[in-house]
Amino acid sequence: MANEEAGDRFSALILAGGNSTRLGQDKAWLPLAGQPLIQRLIDRLLPLVAELVISTNRPEDFMGLQASLPCPLTLVPDQQVGIGPLAGLFAGLRAARHPLVFALAVDMPFVNPLLLRHMATLAEGYDAVVPRVPVPGKEALQPEPLHALYRRTCLPAIEQHLAAGHRQVISFLPDVQTRYLIPAEIVLFDPHYLSFFNINTPADWERARQMAAPER
């Protein structure tokens, strides 16, 4: 799926909510292997999409990115501040110009474009394509809704759940046609599940720096 093929189909939504209480700073601008996390993620998404949407309540921090991008950038604040990423997902999907939207958290530095491409091939007939990944110490697989592909047709279901006071990002998935990826599919592209590693604590950041060192 070259960029020109994606032109009328795919947007990317980056959820960059703001300050992290555990890290004490905005994760989007954490440096990793010589790049802020936001730029690192953008570089991995650009071959796949024709538009970028960033969900943030500090849009002024991201305005400088537009000049260096080869595609449109839309900055979208949550209409319901304090609700969490479900509100960001709703605002970002509503702002997207294209029917299919990759939604990714900004603090996932090892997103694998090959896995995303595979997810795109599964979208026909579904409103959402969501990986299910193992969780250490648990038998059940956990959906990862912030590394997923959504159609804008999910908007009514998300709106209903927000109106009902639901905050879990996965709350609306039973109400739409969802295709779940199982581990046997994921490991073909990402055998160590690095795509789903996210940075929440200083220890996570240090581990990410060690993981990224061989890339440099």
What is the topology?
Blueprint: H1 3-6, E1 10-15, E2 19-20, E3 25-26, E4 31-32, E5 35-36, H2 37-45, E6 52-55, E7 73-76, H3 85-95, E8 100-105, H4 113-121, E9 128-133, E10 142-143, E11 147-151, H5 155-163, E12 178-181, H6 183-186, H7 202-212
Helix pairs in contact: 3-5
Whole-Å distance between the termini?
A: 27 Å
Q: Provide the structure class.
A: alpha/beta
Which fold name fills CATH's third level, the topology? Spore Coat Polysaccharide Biosynthesis Protein SpsA, Chain A
The CATH C-level name is Alpha Beta
Q: For the record, what is the CATH homologous superfamily label?
A: Spore Coat Polysaccharide Biosynthesis Protein SpsA, Chain A
Compute the number of structural domains. Answer: 1
- Under the CATH scheme, the architecture is Alpha-Beta Complex
Secondary-structure element series: HEEEEEHEEHEHEEEHEHH
The major sheet is characterized as: 8 strands, mixed
Provide a count of the helices.
7
